Amino acid sequence: MGRRNALRYLGGELKAQTLVAFAKDTRTYESDQDHRGRLVVRGDGSRHTTQWGGIAGEWQYNGGVVSLLDGSRESDALTVGKVPETIAAGFSRTLPLASGWAEVGGDGDLDVQVTKDTIRLTFGGGQRVITCTRA
Hints:
The protein is built from two helices and ten strands. The relative contact order is 0.16. By secondary structure, it is mainly beta.
């Protein structure tokens, strides 16, 4: 099988890998409520922060939905829908948010703005703002 045909065959998987490559990173973060720390996102689906003694969890991307899970119950998940398979600098979009996390205000919208080194997340029309900067 030639390279072009192999890429067509694997197209969906490669696109999902593009998002994983974008997501996995180490970033510092700061919220408008004085929360600060370091966030590590790994390609194997794990993530953790340094805040509050370290909070670990899982993340996944499936069919345009990113899910973050901190506990064992699916109701504890934060999910963001309509996430494209490729995100790059200049990305700016409002995405639907469903959240079991009281800290971010529950369901609503998530405004995402991406520049070269930062990701700015605005929850619920400004209820909470988190800025992540590549470490």
